[in-house]
Amino acid sequence: MRSLKKTRRIQILTIAAFALAGATGLIGYGMRDSIQFFRSPSEVAMTPPPDSEVFRIGGLVEQGSLVRGQGTAITFRVTDGGASIPVVYEGVLPDLFGEGEGMVGTGRYVGDRFEATEILARHDETYMPKEVVDALKEQGSWQPGS
């Protein structure tokens, strides 16, 4: 009688482990297109990602590079001090967006420019996203309090 209970318990645990592994696999498969990686301009310049990859790029908006086109078209360059990547965006920019300010953009790297679908700017005078700070520190361009 005892071995039947033990066998049943092992069967239930085995089925539960397979169900958990299957659920984890399905969740990973379902989220594969929505996962976005962060890259600094230097990383993008060294190894450009494929045109189909959606990722986030962040850094400082280069001084003198912000050009507003017809309507809502905007072009600028984002830099981390080591490399500078041209960005094209069509839409309304956040209020605190400007030259010399930190930004994070979501989009694709097509040709030799980043085509942004979303632009995020810092939300107050002192905030800077951790990924952007790390990229700037890596390039030696980070100045605390800036």
UniProtKB/TrEMBL annotation:
For the Extracellular compartment, the record's topological domain ranges are: 31-146
| Segments on the Cytoplasmic face | 1-9
Q: Name one GO molecular function term.
A: heme binding
Chief site of localization: membrane
Give the family this protein belongs to, as stated in its UniProt record. Answer: Belongs to the CcmE/CycJ family.
Describe its function.
Heme chaperone required for the biogenesis of c-type cytochromes. Transiently binds heme delivered by CcmC and transfers the heme to apo-cytochromes in a process facilitated by CcmF and CcmH.
Tell me what this protein is called.
Cytochrome c-type biogenesis protein CcmE
State the taxonomy lineage: Bacteria, Pseudomonadati, Pseudomonadota, Alphaproteobacteria, Rhodobacterales
Question: What would be the name of the gene that encodes this protein?
Answer: ccmE
